[in-house]
Amino acid sequence: MAEATAAWRQANGTPGPSAAAAHLDEVSKERTTPTVLEVLRGLDSGPRGLTESQAEERAARLGENRGPAQREVSWARLFVRGLRDPFTAVLGCLGLVSAAVFAWGTASVILLLVLVSCALRASGEYRADRSTAALRELVATTATVLRRADEEAAPAAREIPVAELVPGDVIRLGPGDIVPADVRLLRATGLTVHQAALTGESEPVAKTADDLAHPARGEGGPSARAMPGTGEFERPQLCFQGSSVVSGGATAVVTATGAHTRFAQAHDRRALPPRESAFDRSVHGISWILIRFMLLTPPLVLMANAALRGRGLETLPFAVAVAVGLTPEMLPVLVTLCLARGAALLARAHGVIVRRLPALHDVGAIDVLCLDKTGTLTKDSPVAERALGPDGRDDPEVLHWAAVNAWWSLQLGDLPQPDALDESILDAVDEDELTAYDGVAAVPFAPDRRLATVVVRTPGRLGTHTLAVKGDVPSVLERCALTDDERQRLLALAARQADTGARVLAVATAERSARGRDYTPSDARGLTFRGVITLRDALDPTAADALKVLTDRGVAVKVLTGDHPGTAVRVCRDLGVPVAEDTVLTAEDVDGLTDTELAEAVGRTTLFARCAPEHKARVTEALRRAGHTVGFLGDGVNDLPALRAADVGIAPRDAADVARDAADVVLAEKDLTAVAHAVDAGRHAGGNIATYLRITLSSNLGNVLAMLFAGLLLPFLPMLPAQVLTQNLCFDAAQLAFAHDRPHPRVLDRPTVLDPRGLLRFITGFGVLNAVADLATFGILALALHGPGTGDDEAVFHSGWFTENLLTQAAVMVMLSVGRRAARSRRPSPVAWAAITLSAVGLVLPASPLGPMLGLTALPAVYYPLLGGVLLLYATGLVAARTRFGRGVSRV
Known about the structure:
By secondary structure, the protein is an alpha/beta fold. The protein folds into 4 domains: 2-65 and 141-267, Calcium-transporting ATPase, cytoplasmic transduction domain A (Distorted Sandwich), CATH 2.70.150; 77-128 and 275-353 and 677-885, Calcium-transporting ATPase, transmembrane domain (Up-down Bundle), CATH 1.20.1110; 359-377 and 541-667, Rossmann fold; 381-538, Calcium-transporting ATPase, cytoplasmic domain N (3-Layer(aba) Sandwich). It contains 31 helices and 22 strands. Helix 27 packs parallel to helix 29. The chain is elongated, with a radius of gyration of 36 Å. 52% of the residues are buried.
């Protein structure tokens, strides 16, 4: 009722109730749904529709029939948004500090890295947004409307853009049409609509235009079971924008357009605050680790040098260089490269659009995927499964008469196509068997009767007509010549089939003396019960394999559906998804649990049935509270709350506009195989990022520890700021290879999560090992080369440590990389090539003409075998430490 009042106000442009609106409010106290006359009065319209001038005036005042405006984000805005990334912010702070101490070279390099990172990220997200915007053009954009040239003219039907519809317009609907606005039916014939985009209800829903109150309807169509009410969507006189016509036809008056429709109101983003994704949480945790080290390091260096060596502020540039050396300068660039490269490959190879680059990492981190049944695990059409006679045994005659009913309902009803149930029955029989009859008359399905009747004449049987009746089991049985006991037995037979998750149709026939074509619903009496047809959801041919891949990848699948539990359980078991009785919760069960109890229950529950939108969102939030990274695959308005509540919202290309716009990832098709490809791509990217973080931070930490000790033990700075910067640039450039590496296959076996605590343990262990190797190098340089008391040869010391640093970092890149190729691989990986190049720079640069410019010099020959011994011991330690710390290669 509320939408009729709102529509009247919208049509009349009044901010509050007027006389007509007040009248409708009075009516609402007595009746749930207003009559046709009341709606037309409130909209100042009539059965003949609006005049062109009325429509133009309302369109000018109310605007176009569009959903909430889709604000396209500019490239510049995306670039500025990238500056707020925590990794980038850490790097920016270091650049400012470097500039403050006049380390202009360091500041310039850092600023360049920040700009490159933000530009790459903005470009990737801008292309994704443009691709998603192009998908909106694939949606139907016209409607059939009755308009008049003036008050005296007769109404004429014509096609107009959906955007031009206004409240009060009278439109026509037919099979296959998308309902273009919220409407109230004026006339309807055999109308069924698909409301899955709004309610999650997989079956077509019967609609009627009469003003009588109706009992709770079934799932729609003649095979329906009872389904709990869904509020406004339960009213048979109303159809809503976003639903589609399955069968029948109707004339309706538009009651709400644009932002006033239920479809658009579900798009109100103010209802939920922006979510913090798994990547966001990980980034913030790691950033705080870096910030703490960055803030702690310079004061320690300054105080230690001042206390033990009497050095003052002249060590400040060195202290800043040490802090820069600890921070992975290339992190924003490498993260963006990994994610952008993975997103580009997904788009080209599988048609998957990643709208927000960090979402690709989150896809790889998913350990729970929530999805609906219809259209994902199953197709949108059922298949005929069994035909059972009254004795419960298979009887092909039952299927035959059901097909006769479906065929002649289509032919005599002059429908363009059968509904999904009839189509599945027709697919199961030979068409030649049906054309042998002569069609006489058809009494189409109606919501009050819940059955359809056709009358046919069998060639060779003059003077006799056969009635073939198909429909809801109780409705057909009450028209059959049966005793009460027989009727109860047959009801029990149908109930047993329904309990297995099948949809059940009853079939009956009757012989009548031939007459004209004036058959009515009352002729369907005294029928002979033939049996029942069971139908099940047609499984998606790729779903079973995709589910197995996801399970092997460590992704638990949760099914959240608006359907009957029995139907959903049957589908899951047919696909090989084990569903025990204690792993099923209905919406009523969810409502009875507190948030704490639900968080405990979701882990052991596989199937959630009879779910409304709020239940899907609540289950998704509970899974996140339980520590899971959750993906949600949905395509309807009813999925919006859950799409926003999940770490990753996933929608197919043909999803409702609002669902697609709310999603982080858009699929070319609603296909779980595409989700599996996205998971693999996310884990590839996440594995490379994790490897870079482990290797870079552990190496950097080792160098920082060594510098702190060396700064206290040596009478000179252990490395000049220019040398620190050059070393970092060489190492960082080499590590760009991780963006092109192919991770070890085991990275794909479980979610890739950046765990700050695990990362801290890892870098601490390997950092200490790296520091020990550095200190061993100090000993070689100080004692073996020059003897006691001669360790003040700065150029030799700097050169030796510079070479050792690059060689040990190259060794770490190869030995700790999760992308190690198998021994049989003939070609080095990108990381191996980068390590070889880094080693060559470390060996050649000190003796090259560039060496003196950096304060380096050629090393004596005796240094190299001693360095080889240190590297051998270091490699042995790496192998041992990798066994201890490197078990969680995909979770750092």
